[in-house]
Design a protein that fits this description.
The protein has 600 residues and is of the alpha/beta class. The protein is built from 16 helices and 26 strands. It starts with a strand and ends in an 18-residue tail after the last helix. The structure holds fructose -6-phosphate. The site of fructose -6-phosphate has 15 residues, from helix 8 and helix 14.
Length: 600
């Protein structure tokens, strides 16, 4: 996830550089590995720096600018190539005739890059984006107009993109969208585009949301939207009603609920280019050559450890022995880890000290190491032999939500790839998960449940199989952001001690999907709870008769085992979120916690 902005104003109107920098400061939540702008009054003038926007601002402070009226800007969350000045956007062609910013992933960039390199193009970055200005440049060489060159280049791209371009000596910003957000802003004396409204809300609240496949041509006093065939599209200008104060959260009250709502998009990004419906294959070149012939060992902490538990079960189901360690408990001093071992660190941030120590110990004994992480160029990515990015986009809220869903999805693909399995059913089920989560988000009654139980003495969460880590994760979210006592248990464990804790004021959340053996057994455990007068909330797809024993139901669509655990977890995230909201907690920054734990 990156943020893009574009602006074109009338002579004497707002200064483009100021508009772009203001806008980027509102988009930094989308990534802050580097920032850059291209001003295009006459020639193209690019300024870009690795690091947060402040690094670019310091560099710009040393230069003189004279009221440019047109430009584009970018704040980066790395996907292709580590954070660096060279990989920062905007990217240009060799003659600086065009500058481009991009948010998304160009799936066929390697083929395009090879083709351009064979034609003599020299690349200055590792990014997928840089193919775009070079493709445009080839069209310009062929003598076509700026607009035709832009559209021809875009027609070569596969994948997701919100792209904006400015041309030397032209007063027009061009843009295109496919599966990445792009919104236009309409002011009396200028036009804007951005990945998100807060980038320009200070200047105008009149917006047009672009649809997939559409192009836009913006000048100071005109905006034209056209479809893929070049036919004009009738657009509707909407007026934004929310307060600019909410900028960055896109109108949501907290980053956590925004990130919960981003899960469908995050998962689509995680799957992009990696699932093949026709063959049932999972295509993850990053993991090629890995040999899972010994026991696969996961190391991780907190939420990531819960994802690692899912990874263990996925591999075991496919006949690959696997185990997971809480990273702070892992040590090669006592465990038989050696040069034959495969050790996988699961870490959203890629910087967690406990996980990094475990990875370094595994490296120290010659094990093959893999990072399953969200952050390009993080320590975990740099210090392991293989990296598998979960592509969830930056997560700002301390409580991990969308990264857990993406970890579960990524580990499903990892287990499938490592075991050599081909399953069209699995691929179809995974592809359906984003829409299933969307239907949960659209219809959840989690808020009602939270209203009912927010002052409970404690909350317990139970599940079996893939739902056991979900039960642990449900409890972790609850304690983390509500500060209320919550515990997760393997459903079968309840009767071995914790049952002594249940009362009429301690709801038990039971995750039960399907109607198989595990569901039946969990229902048995639920009956034991119900017999003691304890309220039961069932997270269920309605396949079993759990609802007969439940006081409340949180519904999820029916799907396969691992997919249903990804979807079921969303209901528990929402219960924790609404409970914390009712209790007035500091949701995005819970007390005593930090997003990245860099001490052991
Ligand atoms: C809980 C949470 C933490 C992290 C843990 C590991 O919501 O966010 O439990 O999962 O600190 O962090 P990463 O994944 O960055 O290694």
């Amino acid at each position: 996830m990156c943020g893009i902005i574009g602006y074109v104003g009338s002579e004497g109107g707002d200064d483009a550089l100021g508009v772009l920098i203001d806008g980027l400061s509102q988009l930094e939540y989308r990534g802050y590995d580097s920032a850059g702008v291209a001003l295009a009054d006459g020639g193209i003038d690019v300024h870009k720096r690795q690091g947060e926007l402040s690094a670019l601002q310091s560099a710009l402070a040393l230069e003189q600018f004279d009221g440019d009226t047109i430009g584009i800007g970018h704040t980066r969350w790395s996907t292709h190539g580590p954070p660096s000045d060279a990989n920062a956007h905007p990217h240009t062609d060799a003659d600086d005739r065009v500058a481009v910013v991009h948010n998304g992933i160009i799936e066929n960039y390697q083929a395009l890059r090879d083709e351009l390199a064979a034609a003599g193009v020299e690349f200055e970055s590792d990014t997928d984006t840089e193919v775009v200005p070079h493709l445009i440049s080839q069209q310009l060489d062929a003598g076509v107009s700026n607009e035709a060159a832009f559209r021809a280049a875009i027609s070569r791209l596969e994948g997701s993109y919100a792209i904006a371009a400015v041309f030397e000596g032209a007063d027009t910003v061009y843009a295109a969208r496919n599966e990445s957000p792009l919104v236009l802003g309409v002011a009396d004396d200028g036009r804007f585009l951005a990945s998100d409204v807060p980038a320009f809300i200070e200047y105008t609240d009149r917006v047009i949301y672009l649809e997939d496949g559409e192009f836009a041509r913006l000048t100071a006093d005109e905006h034209v939207v056209i479809d893929g065939e070049g036919a004009p599209v009738e657009t509707t200008i909407e007026t934004i009603s929310w307060d600019p104060e909410d900028a960055g959260k896109s109108g949501y009250d907290h980053y956590m609920i925004k990130e919960i709502n981003e899960q469908p998009a995050a998962l689509r990004e995680c799957f992009r280019g990696r699932l093949d419906e026709l063959t049932g294959r999972v295509d993850v070149p990053e993991l090629e050559g890995l040999d899972p012939s010994g026991t696969v060992t996961f190391v991780a902490c907190g939420t990531s450890y819960h994802a690692a538990m899912v990874g263990v079960r996925l591999l075991q189901e496919r006949g690959v022995p696997a185990q997971a360690f809480i990273a702070s408990e892992f040590t090669t001093d006592t465990l038989p880890i050696d040069s034959e071992s495969l050790v996988i660190g699961v870490t959203q941030s890629g910087e967690t000290a406990d996980t990094m120590r475990a990875i370094r110990e595994a490296n120290g004994v010659g094990a093959t190491t893999v990072a399953v992480t969200n952050v390009v160029g993080s320590s975990a990515a740099r210090e392991t032999d293989h990296v598998f990015y979960i592509r969830a986009g930056p997560e700002i809220s301390v409580a991990a939500t969308k990264t857990f869903a993406s970890q579960q999805a990524a580990l499903t693909m990892l287990a499938t790839a490592l075991s050599g399995e081909r399953s069209r059913d699995l691929v179809t089920d995974l592809r359906a998960v984003p829409d299933q989560i969307q239907s949960v988000l659209d219809s959840s009654n989690a808020r009602e449940i939270a209203e009912h139980y927010h002052d409970a003495d404690a909350a317990f969460f139970i599940g079996r199989g893939y739902h056991y880590p979900v039960a642990l994760e449900g409890a972790l979210k609850m304690k983390e952001i509500t500060y209320s006592h919550a515990e997760g248990f393997a459903a079968g464990e309840l009767k071995h001690g914790p049952l002594a804790l249940v009362t009429e004021n301690t709801p038990v959340f039971a995750v039960v999907t399907g109607d198989g053996r595990l569901a039946e057994k969990t229902i048995g455990n639920v009956k034991e709870v119900e017999a003691r007068g304890t309220p039961v909330v069932a997270v269920t797809d309605g396949q079993s008769d759990i609802e007969r024993y439940a006081d409340h139901v949180l519904s999820v669509p029916a799907t396969s085992n691992v997919a249903s655990s990804i979807v079921a977890n969303v209901q528990l995230q929402l219960v924790a979120y609404w409970t914390a909201t009712i209790l007035g907690r500091s949701i995005d920054k819970p007390r005593n916690l930090a997003k990245s734990v860099t001490v052991e």
